[in-house]
Amino acid sequence: MTMSVTPTASTSAESLEAASSEASDQTSATTRTETSAPAHSAAAGETAAGREAEAPALRPHAEDAFAEELAALAAQDDRPRPERWLLSPWAVATYLLGGTLADGTVITPKYVGPRRIVEVAVTTLATDRALLLLGVPGTAKTWVSEHLAAAVSGDSTLLVQGTAGTPEEAIRYGWNYARLLAHGPSRDALVPSPVMRAMADGMTARVEELTRIPADVQDSLITILSEKTLPIPELGQETQAVRGFNVIATANDRDRGVNELSSALRRRFNTVVLPLPESVDAEVDIVARRVEQIGRSLDLPAVPEGVEEIRRVVTVFRELRDGVTADGRTKIKSPSGTLSTAEAISVVTSGLALASHFGDGLLRAGDVAAGILGAVVRDPAADRVIWQEYLEAVVRERDGWKDFYRACREVSA
Question: What does the pLDDT read at residue 32?
């Protein structure tokens, strides 16, 4: 039976990522795909390789960005660990929620929300049930998925990205057609999917945006999740999952291009619902933390200088999202966009970039106004009217928001 947890407390996400050197040792069997430009000569190839070795990744994988934290947790984790897990369930939860270890090591929170959500998610992965993280866009499904895989298996890259064009081969396996034509069907000609590799190595596979995948392709997961085996009829063989294998899928059912999950597939998952943050303060904290992390990688100004503008952005998004002002006195129309926490992070990050490159480095109303307009007005006809009404009826009358009102009026003209 599928278990659904729908908390009412705050949530959302923050992340950058990590894993210990111990994780690297245990996951050496898992091949990571690397792409590089073709070299036209040996010298050119060496130069390109040198640049690649020296240049840091714009956004490291979870297991790389937080390798020290994962290593510290592994060193002090004396609790029972499921087979092939790098950490115990308690340590995985601590990695996501943050805390201070006995030796004083500070584990930064990757997810801000009720502890019970994370405990249920981690416990699900410790059983033979797959985990489905469900929520509206921007509720940290991807961040939580990535960090769970990093903490459990030390590798968050066994990923299937769901789209309307995702083929069945992305979940099962494909073929190297040159070898297939030359030598016929064989193991050498078979190209395993991330899910198939996770089954063979006892790792955690991730399926992002499961509801965007066509229904017939979704159902190719049913046998994998129920029987823990992947038949290869062309070879008369199968790949059986070894202990440690599991799947984390993410999905939302409120966006366009969504395909409903069949009841047969949904029964194979335990569902954990990730809600939006409950309070303004919680959402401001989430946005500030995440923007600070992104800003460090982009050499942007410190977030504390712009906390007031962050609070304004969050307030506007929440009021338009909820259809009522924060004091509950005025009902307003909601635009067509989701106005999620993730979009608030994007607006503030863009504003910081504007302040840094074309201002004095201090985040001001004019730096976030254009980003808010772009997030709110998705339908040029209907949403623009809603935005104008909100500006005149709410923002214009709010004490201390005159500069914000003027900036939004300028970009909306």
Answer: 43
